[in-house]
Amino acid sequence: MAFGAAKIPKIREHAELTLSDGTHLVGHVFIDATSRIQDLLNATPRFFPFIDDKNQIHLINKDWVMMLRPYDK
Fold this sequence. Notes:
Elements: E1 10-19, E2 24-32, E3 47-52, E4 57-61, E5 65-70
Antiparallel strand pairs: 1-2, 1-5, 2-3, 3-4
């Protein structure tokens, strides 16, 4: 990172996730404060962390994601 470059803070967003094998998870993703949850799938890294409601960390391969959306209780 260049000296003096601004860093965009991350925020924790409640989300639900369905993978291509049928796995359904409810938990949190971390996104840039200026982004939407959907933008996470278009970002460069191939994997992203997902923390489920039991506080287990999953490293998710974007190729397996069928659905990722904000979770509304």
